[in-house]
Amino acid sequence: MAHEHDVGFLESVAHQIRTLIIDTAHTAGAGHTGGSLSEVEILTALYFSFLNVDPECPDWNERDRFILSKGHASLGYYVTLALKGYFPTDNLKTFDREDSTLQAHPDMHKCKGVDYSTGSLGQGLSIGVGIALGGLKKNQQFKTVVLLGDGECQEGQVWEAAMFAGSKHIPKLIAIVDYNKVQLSNKVDENLSLEPFAIKWEAFGWNVLSADGHNIADLLSVLSRASALSARGPVVIIANTIKGKGVSFMEGKYEWHGKAPNDQEYTAAKKELGSK
Amino acid sequence: MELGEEIAQRTAFGQALVELGAEKPNMLVLDADVGPSTQTHLFGRAYPDRFIEVGIAEQNMVGIAAGLSTLGFVPWISTFAVFMTKRAGDQIRNSIAHPKANVKINGAYGGLPTGRAGATHSAIEDLAVMRAMPNMIIMDPADPREAAVCARLAMEIEGPVYLRTVRCPVPVIFPEHHKVEIGKAVKLHEGKDVAIISSGMMTPRALKAAEILEGQGVSARLLHMPTIKPIDIEAICDAAESIGAIVTVENHSIIGGLGGAVCEVVAEYAPCRVKRLGFPDVFLESGDDEVLFSRYSLDIAGIVSVAKALAEGGKKNK
């Protein structure tokens, strides 16, 4: 199951993740629905195919590392970890509640499978660089994958980390940007444009690939190329996605950045997802 | 290192890192282009493979150290305290303190002595910022010897430690086998008329002040606090209850550092008069260290005069 390359199977996993995101957000009355829905196929491709991890041994020393730098999209992350087997899906009912292992932002000391605590934007890539550098120093073979939000790339620290990793040619480091074009308060382009985005990463010394972030087959193929390229230095995948993907009235809407569906919206969303 | 010898505390710290590096192969040092100033360049020369120059990018330095710590490395991050604790303050909070990363932080150029660099480079509030962060242990060593002892102690602790060092020469006051215990004051002088509580590079001059006061018929108890957090509540309460008048002396703002910590303890458990010596909520300026220190009574004469006034008149406010 860990290296299942059957795209049809992965698409069914992605659909299950999407449905559970809606269920969990609705139960909690909280969660970052839009950015969780945009990362679904990325997380599916990573956890159900690309990453060499073992939910039975979450601290396995040789495991690939994953950092959710856009920590607010924990909802999609937790659902993925649960389906992967790190903890029972029943735990999702406690999301964002008092004393839950599933804090609003991922806590490595509370939630199994979380490689580093995140939440304050802009910090995950530096942590990933440190992990990749540590792996290099210890001659370990694991890959480090960091998932960034697009709005997050407005933070200066992201570019400090990019400059460091690029100039030092840090290998086995893959950044993925969930480029859903919408941030909390507006479209990214209208708040502070990242463009020309690919050229920026290139100028910082990264190999740049792009992917359709909702197409599992494309993601798998791009991840495989990224993995090969990353032997010589860091690679970024700009994954074009849609915020709120899969629920028509959430798609592309900044209003769904940090909102959970009410009963009526929940019913409508489930109907759409169920019809697929 | 001889008693009374004046040695730059930063150099003692840099040399201590080199010694520790020989014993601990998993220790790394990261600096943000100020290694020759913080003296971590000594470690870099001794162990080039274990020294990481990150450039002038403090925030990234913190994150890299956090990541390295997950693989069993024990990274020291080092830059000027003023930038470390504010420029990278959010990174220290969220990437180190909250996840309890085993990262050691050198806040160099603590307080006023910055080589005449003035307001922008003087860390007057680093202890206040760090003290408010859960999971953080804070050390403010008195002399070159204690800086080395604290660096070693930091390596024995699992979790974040903030170790403040100063740029300027400080006299050695502690003997060779000096030990520091987390959360324990070091009593350097016994007395009954006034208690002086000091930390960092203020302690050697507070010790001189206590000796001078004795000659003037004022008996002062001097408590040195090598750790600002946790602070020695028991020693503070005992001073408050048995003496009833406290002067705090620190190379830091009177807000939120040693003076703030002592006032919090005293107000809650053993109310008494406290006079805080430090920077009175002002930005510093460039100039000669000692001329500037004397403006805030942070020279020996200033400490003597403030402690004496408190011993003679302060207790009537009780």
TrEMBL record, chain A:
InterPro entries: THDP-binding (IPR029061), Transketolase_N (IPR005474). Keywords: Thiamine pyrophosphate, Transferase. GO terms for molecular function: transketolase activity. It comes from the Bacteria. The keyword Transferase applies. Its EC number is 2.2.1.1. The keyword Iron does not apply. Residues 13-275 form the Transketolase N-terminal domain. Its cofactor is thiamine diphosphate. PANTHER family: TRANSKETOLASE N-TERMINAL SECTION-RELATED. Belongs to the transketolase family. This is Putative transketolase N-terminal section. It comes from uncultured spirochete. The lineage of its organism: Bacteria, Pseudomonadati, Spirochaetota, Spirochaetia, Spirochaetales.
From TrEMBL, chain B:
PANTHER family: PYRUVATE DEHYDROGENASE E1 COMPONENT, TRANSKETOLASE-LIKE PYRIMIDINE-BINDING DOMAIN-CONTAINING PROTEIN. Its cofactor is thiamine diphosphate. Its EC number is 2.2.1.1. It comes from uncultured spirochete. Belongs to the transketolase family. The chain crosses the membrane at residues 61-83. Keywords: Membrane, Thiamine pyrophosphate, Transferase, Transmembrane, Transmembrane helix. Residues 7-172 form the Transketolase-like pyrimidine-binding domain. This is Putative transketolase C-terminal section. GO terms for molecular function: transketolase activity. It comes from the Bacteria. The lineage of its organism: Bacteria, Pseudomonadati, Spirochaetota, Spirochaetia, Spirochaetales. SMART domains: Transket_pyr. It is an enzyme of class 2 (transferase). Pfam families: Transket_pyr (PF02779), Transketolase_C (PF02780). InterPro entries: PDH/Transketolase, THDP-binding, Transketo_C/PFOR_II, Transketolase-like_Pyr-bd, Transketolase_C.
